[in-house]
């Protein structure tokens, strides 16, 4: 076997013993390494004692202190360069670079996936917004149709209200006519009652006259009987009695004629009374008809008022529905505008996400290319 070469040595700067040196490149060891840095501390303490000395010893001590500092800096730089430029350091840097690159690639893939998901979410949101916009458009059209129907119903309700008002005016006219008929019937009734009272007074007078004539007739008959009985008693008085009898007969005939006339007048009075009663009954019937017509007119008026109130309520309800429909249409249009803005924003977000995904894909490609070049250089 070949003999191992003896390691290089160098005397200690403090005690003078030989100090083994490392085989590779690097800063040489100036102090003993087997006494936990005692020689280095002793040399530093000696220099610290002599650094303030006057003359050459102080300058030498300060120079050695500066040299030690420079040696420490050189050692630090040498170790750093050795750690960075040695194969192990290069491998470590490559491993760190690979790990960092893998982390960046994973982050880029994650960002790309997130960007894809964001793009898909944006597309889904845009589709949902389109559907909402279509639904809002349909709601707006439906609201417009409801508004048009409400306007047509309001127009019909207005026409019905006008018809009800015309019916009310007609009913009022009928009621006024019925009232006039009732007043006229009451006037006719009062006139008939007055005529009836007049006829009754005349009838009572005729009855009294007939009674008087009957009494006179009875008296004449009594006188005639007395004259007949006394005819045999006095001849002289016969002529006078005959004259009286003739006169009595004449008066009796006149009384009979008056009684017949009174009977005829009584019959006429009765006929007039019956006619007055018939006229009264007709007037009563006319009054009842007028009252019934007035009641019907009042009922029709109340019905017309109820219909008018109902039509007015329906018109107000339709007006409220029309206002609500217009408000709903305005809200639907505002919602449509908002959804349009949100759709544009979602499309802009989608485009931005797609651009970001493209940028991340480019970055991943660049990182992969850099990693490939680094691997090629390392190999």
From TrEMBL:
Comp. bias regions, Basic and acidic residues: 110-120, 138-154, 207-228, 243-254
Region annotation Disordered: where it falls in the sequence: 107-191, 207-285
Which N-terminal residues, if any, form the signal peptide? none
Coiled-coil region = none
Low complexity composition-biased segments:
122-137, 155-164, 255-285
Protein's name in the database: Uncharacterized protein
User: From which lineage does this chain's organism come?
Assistant: Bacteria, Bacillati, Actinomycetota, Actinomycetes, Micromonosporales
């Amino acid at each position: 076997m070949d003999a191992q070469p003896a390691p290089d040595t160098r005397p200690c700067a403090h005690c003078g013993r030989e100090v083994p040196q490392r085989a590779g490149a690097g800063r040489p060891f100036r102090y003993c390494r087997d006494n936990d840095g005692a020689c280095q501390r002793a040399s530093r303490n000696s220099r610290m004692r002599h650094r303030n000395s006057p003359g050459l010893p102080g300058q030498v001590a300060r120079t050695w202190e500066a040299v030690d500092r420079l040696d420490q800096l050189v050692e630090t730089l040498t170790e750093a360069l050795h750690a960075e430029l040695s194969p192990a350091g290069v491998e470590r840097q490559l491993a760190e670079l690979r790990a960092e690159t893998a982390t960046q690639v994973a982050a880029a893939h994650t960002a790309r996936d997130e960007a894809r998901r964001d793009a898909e979410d944006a597309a889904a949101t845009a589709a949902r917004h389109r559907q909402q916009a279509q639904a809002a458009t349909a709601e707006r059209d439906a609201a417009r149709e409801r508004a048009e129907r409400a306007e047509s119903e309001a127009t019909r309700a207005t026409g019905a209200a006008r018809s009800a008002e015309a019916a009310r005016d007609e009913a009022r006219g009928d009621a006024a006519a019925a009232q006039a008929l009732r007043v006229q019937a009451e006037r006719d009734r009062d006139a008939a009652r007055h005529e009836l009272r007049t006829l009754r007074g005349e009838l009572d007078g005729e009855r009294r006259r007939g009674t008087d004539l009957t009494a006179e007739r009875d008296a004449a008959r009594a006188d005639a009987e007395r004259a007949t009985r006394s005819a045999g008693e006095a001849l002289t008085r016969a002529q006078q009695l005959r004259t009286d009898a003739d006169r009595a007969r004449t008066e009796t005939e006149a009384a009979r004629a008056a009684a017949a006339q009174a009977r005829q007048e009584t019959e006429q009075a009765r006929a007039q009374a019956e006619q007055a009663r018939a006229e009264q009954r007709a007037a009563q019937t006319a009054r009842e008809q007028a009252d019934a017509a007035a009641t019907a007119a009042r009922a029709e008026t109340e019905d017309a008022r109820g219909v008018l109130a109902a039509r007015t309520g329906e018109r107000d309800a339709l007006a409220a529905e029309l206002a609500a429909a217009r408000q709903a249409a305005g809200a639907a249009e505002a919602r449509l505008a908002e959804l349009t803005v949100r759709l544009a924003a979602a499309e802009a977000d989608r485009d931005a996400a797609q651009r970001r995904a493209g940028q991340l894909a480019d970055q991943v490609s660049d990182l992969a290319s850099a990693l490939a070049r680094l691997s090629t250089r390392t190999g």
